[in-house]
Amino acid sequence: MFSNPLIYFVVIPVVMLLGIYLSRSMAQIRSVAVAGSILLTALSVWLIVDYLGLRAAGDMAPMLYRGDWMWFSALNIKLSVGVDGISLAMLLLSSIILLTGSFASWKINPLPKEFFLWLILLSIGVFGFFISIDLFTMFMFYEVALIPMYLLIGIWGTGRKEYSAMKLTLMLMGGSAFLMLSIIGIYYHSGPDVNGAAHTFDLLQIAANDAIPHSWQYFLFPMAFVGFGVLGAMFPFHTWSPDGHACAPTAVSMLHAGVLMKLGGYGCFRVAIYLMPFAAQELAWIFLILTGISVVYGAFSACVQTDLKYINAYSSVSHCGLVLFAILMLNTTAMTGAIMQMLSHGLMTALFFALIGMIYGRTHTRDIRQMGGLMKIMPYLAVCYVIAGMASLGLPGLSGFVAEMTIFVGSFENTNTLNRVFTIIACCSIVITAVYILRVVGKLLFGPVQDEHHLQLTDATWWERTSTATLIICVAAIGCFPNFFANLIRFTFSPDIFAVLK
Amino acid sequence: MDYSQFLAMKQEIALLGVFLLVFLYDLFMPKNSQRGLSGFTIAIFAIFTVSCFCPVFISGHEVAFGGMYVTNPVMLTIKNILNVGMLIVLIQASRWANSEMQVIRRGEFYSLMLVTLFGMYLMISARHFLLFVIGLECASLPLAAMVAFEKNHYESHEAAIKYILTAVFSSAIFMLGLSFVYGLAGSLYFDSVYFALTGADATDPMLIVALAFVMAGVGFKLSLVPFHLWTADVYQGAPTSVTSYLSVISKGSAAFAFMVILTQVFGCVYSQVWEWMLYALIILTITVGNLFALRQHNMKRFLAFSSISQAGYIMLGIIGCNAMGMASLMFYILVYIFSNLAAFGVIQAIENQTGKVDMTDYRGLYKSNPHLSVVMMLAMFSLAGIPPFAGFFSKFFIFTGALSGTESTALYVLVLIALINTIISLFYYLLVVKAMFLSSDEPVIAPFRSACSERVGMWITVAGILALGLVSCFYNQILILCQTWGLPSLA
């Protein structure tokens, strides 16, 4: 079991949990968190290199590094792991954000030990989700990732934290209730497994059998899509997102917007669309309309907010809506764009939230009306904020441009009128994004200094610089070398693997 | 008469032996060694529990007394599950039983408890309604005395009166139902009734009335809505040790017996008659239990309503009427025993120390008593069905069991309703977590070190919450047993 490299994505965090539990000082906690996440990042980078090597050598299996261990033999529940380029990209994203998140919570107070314990537990859920290809274990890890949010926001959050924490937890768990029913339904219509069992939870096997009756797909597909869509902030189930993100502590906002919301998008294509191609084609229009609304509505809402975190949270609704929107276009280009957008948005929004947390830690306000001229006061953070903003509104050379370009080109490939109309509408969000980003940048960074006390504030410390610099490098890397990531992703979106692309 | 058939009842006889030893110890031991009674009971019951897993007790299908009594490995397993729960209850209760108020009466407490367990054994193994009723009464009546054990508390008396009146009333209804069954089938043997009903007209009003009365009778015991009205008051008034016993052991045994009756006796009219009765009962039980739990402040009342809704989830294992549902039901009971007892363990520790049982008293508990709060949190997460704790697995399996081998949309809708209810239940379970962890108030309860027995109880329950789900052999084993030994009409 331990010869499989993927298992270490769960083993390392578990060891980290133990290490943090035994730590006696803040310094030890930090070193465990940082060392562990560096290890995880190194592991994912190594796997990506190795993966590309294997693919180049002609390995055509849909998933590599497969491992299968029987768990509940009676129900044919297995602990199956395996990754393709997309999961690897997501693993890399998660470990980078965990690393930068640890740096961003360098001085977390109170109860630092508990904070890191919950944060790492959350990351176990995330990593476990991305490596699993068994529906049951995938769902289990999915829920493991959700519940620590309650305590992380409730204890270490700001503002209306109890309300937001409860709202977020209940809405996400509500989504997972639909998901659970859908998973059980899929299981009972999955068709036989290779080992002779009557039903299976194995994603690849279910997709290969393609035995789910069409009448059931009509019922199970919306369940699964809504279940994951709630986490992907799909309209009208997005309302947890602004409140939750605004009240969460910095590292949690980063991890949640950066990684956890990607679980939604990832689940939508890996479970809903991959397993139920028929219903995906038949029912995509419903969700296309909903996600189209998310994209535009999120952007418009961001324009009228005055709280930095709310602005960014609504912008996340808009950008994550774009991910689901692109996935529903059901063609290779748009879906590749969706994955790029996941990576891009994950890094960019983590950068935003990290910066907002750092600014808030100094000014003690997030209201843009009470701040101004930060470029003079904290030039490093201000420049980082501009870079993040440029990435968000799609400046070429940064990640946002690559992702959105691919998505819109791919979406327009669809000759269907509805798809084209919605593509055009969604394109408008780019302009609206520019409005709210530039408005904030102008007001916050370049306007007159609003508060005399702000003049005494200091610029970023070394751990804050590390955190932001890492994220900026990654954003730029995607922007400058998009082909590398597209290559990583492309293999999975072939008609041989995704029946829906035929 | 062939006396060797008593050998089929090895477990019951061993339990009677335990009861006699405890009784005699209490009666004849000199005053100065009376202090050891709790320890003695726990030790001897632990030996009994462990030895029940030994090969001596494991046998195939055994029948005694002309088919009135039956035992097989599935029944052995459910009895073992109850034993484990009982052992934890005994350990948790020992501080309360040794308190100054109770010390003079604790011998009766232990004896009565063991007698009720004996009654539950009979309920589980009965294959004739007469034996079943004996078991049912034997399990209910001594409990009334136990509920009234807080002699100086007014609520305790009130609870006992309510309990005994409803218990007697429900028994009466149950037996009225039995008289109809007898009229229909001309026999009270489970098998005979089953054969007499096979091919019977399912629209026969007598059959429907008989079933309704039988379901109502057992429904009282299980506190299914609308037969739940006694639950909250009794749970609140009874001593906490008795409440925890009522909520897990009593409920667990009744749930299994209910399944046996529905599938064994009325299995042939499953889809025509009782599937829809049970369908309605489940929706009502889960929803009403949850909605009432939302606004409770007294922890014991709160857990009373939570246990009502949990009983609804347990019933989901019956509605599928298949071996997987049966295994899931047993596994659910096992997990529920551990989770609920963990919660009651904390409540008991706090109540014994400070006398406080209100949710508002738990505010800021994490600051003063971190360990207790963590145990409570695990219990709440497990009850709410959050992974990686055992409750998640038991919920998943019970839903899977309910939908096994069916294409019925109605059952999918039922599971969806149950799933949506888990969100409501998550809300109120999180309220407890919120009070303990999120509240910034100064803690009401000062730091204290709980008694040794309480800590042992908590360690066992926490170990169960963590291990029962993640370690797959428990569920696998139960399911294999149910598939091999499953009740005849379930095959």
Describe this structure in words.
The complex is a heterodimer of chains A (502) and B (491). Chain A has 502 residues and is mainly alpha-helical. Chain A has one domain. In chain A, 73% of the residues lie in helices and 3% in strands. Chain A has helices spanning 8-22, 26-56, 85-104, 112-131, 135-146, 148-156, 161-188, 203-209, 214-231, 240-247, 250-275, 277-304, 308-327, 332-363, 374-377, 379-393, 399-413, 417-446, 462-480, 482-490; strands at residues 64-72, 77-83. In chain A, strands 1-2 form a two-stranded antiparallel ribbon. In chain A, a hairpin with a 4-residue loop joins strand 1 (64-72) and strand 2 (77-83). The radius of gyration of chain A is 22 Å and the shape is globular. The two termini of chain A are 36 Å apart. Chain B has helices at 10-28, 37-51, 73-97, 106-125, 129-147, 154-185, 190-197, 205-222, 231-237, 240-265, 270-293, 299-319, 323-354, 365-368, 370-384, 390-403, 409-438, 452-470, 473-485, and strands at residues 62-64, 69-71. The mean pLDDT of chain B is 89. In chain B, strand 1 and strand 2 (69-71) form a beta hairpin. In chain B, strands 1-2 form a two-stranded antiparallel ribbon. By secondary structure, chain B is mainly alpha-helical. Chain B is built from 19 helices and two strands. Helices cover 74% and strands 1% of the residues of chain B. The chains are: A mainly alpha (502), B mainly alpha (491). The A-B interface holds A 71-75, 77, 136, 140-141, 143-144, 147, 150-151, 154-155, 161-162, 165-166, 169-170, 173-174, 177-178, 180-181, 184-185, 187-188, 219 and B 324, 327, 381, 386-388, 392, 396-397, 399-400, 403-405, 412, 415-416, 419-420, 422-423, 426-427, 430, 433-434, 437-438, 472, 475-476, 479-480.
